[in-house]
Fold:
Amino acid sequence: DRELGDEYGWKQVHGDVFRSPPHSSLLASLVGTGIHIAVVSSVVLFLALTNKLYTERGSFISTAIFVFATTSPVNGLVGGSLYARMSEVLGLKKYHHKEWISIETLDKIKERKNKKAAINNCRTRAEKVQAQAEYIEANKQVKRSIRADKKKYVEELATTAEKAAREGNMKQLHDTAKKLAGKYSKPERTVKGKEGKRITEIQRQRNRWVEHFEELLNRPAPMNPPDIEAAHIDLPIDVNPPTKEEIRMATKLQHYGSSSKNQLSGTRHYTSTLILKKHSTV
Structure:
């Protein structure tokens, strides 16, 4: 955005982001990817950068449209009418807050937004200083309230995890642990060749990994292998086949914590029967 404004003299009409439904025929020339310029009466009217929005699984949701207009005052009315029309038809982007943010915090966020707007509407320097001080205080209250909500949310998750661990509900414990850990993914490491050059093609990266592990694992036997003596005392480990009662108990523990008790009993009986048949044949 900054490069467009510096190089071509464009400025964003408004800070909001418009979202077009996936099957909308409105502004068909803007939907897609890349840069689209509409020309009216041989005068450049506006420019829109569109980005398609996808879910994590790749399904198409909608199209985000960023509208820009020239800095010429002649097109000021045109930019305003364009923004009003797009706000009416497309609507603004809806922001979804976190589930753990309380209603009181949302009210404070709204109040902070009003304080921010009051700064831009001030006419004198004294009013602006006063409005900035009020905004700083409102911002502190918002951050303090968000930290309190996050702490309360984490404590509730920890209590739920402890209860699930005591009851042996492994599914609920695993789901709660994932929520506590958050979504953290390690960045992909750059694959380089022997010469130190970066490899970008996927097939060449795979070939490089194969070559690397072949050199790493296919090594000659050591000249002086270590002489490891056998243990003098054998550990008390039972190596006999498991008994029928042990199989039943293991099957019960495996299916413990299922959502439905009826499904639990049926699955337990079915699995136990199969294992017992296999045990008897062996």
Remarks:
- Helices lie at 2-8, 76-89, 103-120, 125-167, 170-181, 202-217, 244-254, 261-281.
